[in-house]
Amino acid sequence: xxxxxxxxxxxxxxxxxxxxxxxxxxxxxxxxxxxxxxxxxxxxxxxxxxxxxxxxxxxxxxxxxxxxxxxxxxxxxxxxxxxxxxxxxxxxxxxxxxxxxxxxxxxxxxxxxxxxxxxxxxxxxxxxxxxxxxxxxxxxxxxxxxxxxxxxxxxxxxxxxxxxxxxxxxxxxxxxxxxxxxxxxxxxxxxxxxxxxxxxxxxxxxxxxxxxxxxxxxxxxxxxxxxxxxxxxxxxxxxxxxxxxxxxxxxxxxxxxxxxxxxxxxxxxxxxxxxxxxxxxxxxxxxxxxxxxxxxxxxxxxxxxxxxxxxxxxxxxxxxxxxxxxxxxx
Length: 330
Prior knowledge:
Blueprint (H helix, E strand, L loop, with lengths): L3 H20 L8 E5 L10 E2 L8 E3 L2 E5 L2 E5 L1 E4 L7 E3 L2 E5 L2 E5 L2 E3 L22 E4 L2 E5 L12 E2 L14 E2 L11 H7 L8 H12 L5 H4 L7 E2 L17 H4 L13 E2 L68
Parallel strand pairs: 6-15, 8-14, 12-13
Antiparallel strand pairs: 1-9, 2-16, 3-6, 4-5, 7-10, 8-9, 11-12
């Protein structure tokens, strides 16, 4: 049973954060329905699993937040809800003294995701991992690992300006000081589709696994990336993670054992052979929690599910095949 003193402290925290959010500019929290009083951990380094089939798109891993603190949602290959759509990853943004979660979404162009270098084509602005053309999705094998059986591929080496930056949030002390470009702002006003049911289930599964929480893995999840949602076969561990058996998690392949690309947000693609994996950013010192707090979403946004899944957006107009989207950052 919660003591009266503990209950009073919790109520006081919520009131303080609510006041901070009320004082913060409304535009700073557009789309935010979760806020926390301390920063998420740095991005872990992990190996990208091989693409399971033509038409799958990569969605990078990220830190989400639940009652038990920050937890890692593994990067995973998923099928987009429609031809021509691209994924804008979620991100944490600092404003008004708290860190707000901006949900990811599907749309015809990639919008602003905080300048966070997630790797695998998500280099902080836009997406350079592939493009829609001729009725199919073509993969840039300089930053994506799709295996030898794929024919819809090309090689385009990528210049990365934020090499070695592993910060997982935008703004605030130690955060990435990036602002949305005109193209990114325009993309945010397009019709969007929220995360698919498959992605929602993936988030729920991540939250239900205690080994994914930063408090349990120290910022090095033993299942950092999966090949498909709902399956741990071919899962890969973050660099520096303890074996999954020691954490009570599902078995996970180590390093490049899964054949995946390194999500090396820390290294330019030009320095790697096209057939090699892509690697994610090595974590910097993890921000340790001081306190946590939640705030209600702005009235203009739907209420979230308990697992911090993206809010629903209106479905976009149908996308017919053929053209290459004018996604910015290419």
